[in-house]
Amino acid sequence: MEVVKRTRMSPAERRAQLLDLGARMLAERPLEQISVEEIADQAGVSRGLLFHYFASKHDFHLAIVRHAGADMLANTEPDPTLRPMEMLHASVSAYVDYVSANRNTYLSLLRGSASGDEEMRDEFERTRAVQADRIVSHLPRLGIAPDARIILAVRGWIAFVEEATITWLRDPQISRDELVDLHVQALPAVTLTPGVAAALLR
Prior knowledge:
By secondary structure, the chain is mainly α.
């Protein structure tokens, strides 16, 4: 990457610039290899100024993870004007496309969630919680009252989608559309009774 000529920015603009540079670098290398010195050089600012916005290297890395998680959620936001199953299909399609286009970034997020860093795990957990809440909040439109069993099953489904998608990226033995259908069909299968699940998938 080329060094960016330093320009005057508001504090919010400068912070956003640093996070954007960090997110772009995350697409090329693991989080732990992102250097604050290199980010500062690319932004055309001093290392000290970067630490004016982020208290430490760890704080900067945490902000990058938060930024990447927010980007993924924004790109997979459900369309409430669609019918529930159509909305699920559209969101899953957007998720698969996002992860495919941002493979290295997403793998870094998953590694962070599995690391010994509690704050990193908490950030990824917040992203998963938003994904689960999106699904659970729309179940009443299907006449389904969410209970503890369903909520637990939704969380398990999210873990399945993550693992299956990453495995598919490494070795795509089925098509992208087949992967999306697998994910969509799996949610009713694990959360609802067989009769209700079959009715939804007709």
